[in-house]
Design goal:
Elements: E1 2-4, E2 15-18, H1 23-39, E3 43-49, H2 63-90, E4 96-102, H3 105-113, E5 118-122, H4 128-133, H5 138-145, E6 150-153, H6 161-164, E7 166-170, H7 175-191, E8 194-201, H8 211-227, H9 229-234, E9 240-246, H10 249-256, E10 262-266, H11 281-288, E11 293-296
Parallel strand pairs: 2-3, 2-5, 3-4, 5-6, 7-8, 7-10, 8-9, 10-11
Antiparallel strand pairs: 1-4, 6-11
Helix pairs in contact: 3-5, 10-11
């Protein structure tokens, strides 16, 4: 791995962000820096050198091949220098270093995630065809394999100030859901945003109506309040609201978090609240979400690819 000069990390886990030449990538870089600053963490910029088939990263052959390889590698380092300069102009006191690594982006970033506090990638909104047929985009691969929280960030969107100061977390009572709640409370405390804690109930043919529905609503809110009790004590300044939604979990979460500062979910859930299923909705949210999505892996989950 080659390194573009930068400061040392002093043993802190960095916020790692994937860098490419795309506008979506730069949106991810800017968002990652905004996360690193209040956390007092270094920022690591990573560019994957995806060599064309048949190309040699370290050729020992003819001079033209060595020259092409050197130019290809230099192009990646230039991308990193431009990103580093972009960040240093905006956050001159932020500790920034930059790395190139040979290999596919997904593999490189999963490996980097093994030593990261947060892994960030920029992503363009999928078109209709991609929503229907793209099965494993980069974000899905990273949220499935990275051993740290993964943030997938789309282009900046104009939103009312009150929405930008809103963090939404989807919970279902599972252990992974509780880890997501921990991250969401920390994020709210650092940013000064209010926190919306959401449970989603599937709509069944026999869904309660009238007074019974009100009972379900009240019971669900009581469960949410009980589930957040420890975090409310730890973060007393965080403003919290509870919502119970009905329907498909991914669509309900995407709707309630539309244009929020971010949406936080676990990568898998166990349906701890009756009738609730967060589970693998993170994969659907990668296609349907309109705000940055942060997916929290199970604690101690291996970083493999």
């Amino acid at each position: 791995m080659a390194t573009v000069p930068g400061s040392g990390s002093h043993g802190l886990k960095p916020v790692v962000v994937g860098v490419s030449r795309s506008e979506a990538s730069m949106a991810g870089v800017a968002w990652a820096a905004e996360e690193a600053v209040p956390r007092h963490l270094p920022l690591r910029l990573v560019h994957a050198l995806e060599w064309p088939p048949g190309a040699e990263p370290h050729p020992h052959g003819a001079h033209p091949q060595r020259t092409w390889s050197a130019h290809f590698r230099a192009g990646g380092e230039m991308v990193l220098r431009e990103a580093a300069n972009f960040i240093r102009e905006r956050h001159p006191h932020l500790e920034v270093d930059a790395h190139t690594a040979d290999g596919p982006r997904a593999r490189v970033l999963v490996q980097q995630g093994a030593e990261a506090a947060l892994l960030v990638v920029g992503a363009k909104p999928p078109n209709v065809v991609e929503q229907l047929f793209v099965v494993s985009p980069l974000g899905v691969t990273l949220t499935a394999h990275a051993g740290c929280p993964v943030a997938v960030v789309g282009p900046p969107q104009q939103a009312p100030d009150d929405q930008q100061q809103l963090i939404v977390v989807g919970v279902d009572g599972s252990a992974n859901s509780r880890e997501a709640m921990t991250f969401a409370f920390e994020e709210a405390a650092l940013s000064g945003a209010r926190l919306r804690v959401v449970a989603v109930r599937h709509v069944h043919p026999g869904r309660p109506v009238g007074g019974e529905e009100e009972d379900v609503e009240n019971e669900s809110r009581a469960e949410l309040s009980e589930a957040t009790a420890g975090w409310r004590e730890k973060y007393p300044d965080v403003e919290i609201e509870y919502q119970v939604k009905y329907g498909h979990p991914a669509r309900a979460l995407a709707h309630t978090a539309a244009r929020a500062r971010c949406l936080v979910v676990g990568s898998r859930g166990l349906g701890g609240f009756r009738g609730m299923l967060v589970g693998s909705v993170s994969h659907v949210l990668l296609h349907q979400g309109t705000c940055p999505l942060i997916v929290i892996p199970p604690q101690g989950g291996p970083a493999t690819y």
